[in-house]
Design a protein that fits this description.
Layout lengths: L7 H5 L3 H22 L4 H10 L13 H7 L10 H11 L2 E3 L5 E3 L1 H11 L2 H8 L5 H17 L6
Antiparallel strand pairs: 1-2
C-alpha cells in the first residue's frame, strides 16, 4: 500500500490494522538498530529496567527469568530470549544470580541502565521528526478509540 498522492478520503479507507502493523515493525526495527549500534539490546534494557528499584521493579527483590518473562509479557517479542540476554548481562557484571536463580541488578548494572536511558530522547526525536505533539496526541487518541471500539483494553 502506498500513500503517495492519495486523497484524505482514499487514505481514510485504508485498513488501520495494516498500517499499525507496518508502523510497529518499522519502529521496533529502528529502535533496536539504534540500540545495537550503542552496544545493547532492547531486551537487555528491559531486564535492567525490570530489576531496578529506580525504574520498574516494584520491590527490588530480584526475579527469575520466568518471572521477568511474565512481567514483560505485553511487550516482549517471540524472538526475544531473556535467558541468553541475561547471560550477557551477567558476563558484563550488570546482573548477579543467586542460588534461587533470581537475577539482581548490580551497581554497575544500575549505572548502565541510567546511561542507556540517556539515549532514549534522541531515538524518540528521530522517530517523531516532522510530527508535532498535537498530531501525535491525536493519532494516539484515534488508536485508543479503535482499541475500545473493538473491545480491547488500554494497557
Amino acid at each position: 500500500m502506498t500513500t503517495q498522492h492519495v486523497s484524505d478520503a482514499e487514505l481514510a479507507g485504508q485498513p488501520a490494522a495494516y498500517w499499525t502493523g507496518v508502523a510497529y515493525e518499522a519502529l521496533i526495527a529502528y529502535t533496536r538498530k539504534q540500540q545495537a549500534e550503542l552496544g545493547f539490546t532492547q531486551p537487555q534494557f528491559w531486564l535492567l529496567r525490570n530489576l531496578s528499584t529506580n525504574d520498574l521493579s516494584p520491590d527490588g527483590q530480584g526475579m527469575t527469568v520466568p518471572e521477568l518473562q511474565q512481567a514483560m509479557h505485553t511487550y516482549i517479542r517471540p524472538e526475544d530470549d531473556l535467558t541468553a540476554e541475561s547471560e550477557v548481562l551477567l558476563e558484563r557484571g550488570w546482573l548477579t544470580r543467586d542460588a534461587d536463580e533470581r537475577l539482581w541488578i548490580t551497581e554497575a548494572g544500575e549505572e548502565a541502565r541510567v546511561g542507556i536511558k540517556r539515549h532514549a530522547p534522541a531515538i524518540r526525536a528521530r522517530i517523531h521528526q516532522g510530527i508535532d505533539d498535537a498530531d501525535y496526541a491525536t493519532a494516539l487518541r484515534v488508536l485508543q478509540q479503535m482499541i475500545r471500539n473493538t473491545g480491547g483494553t488500554l494497557g
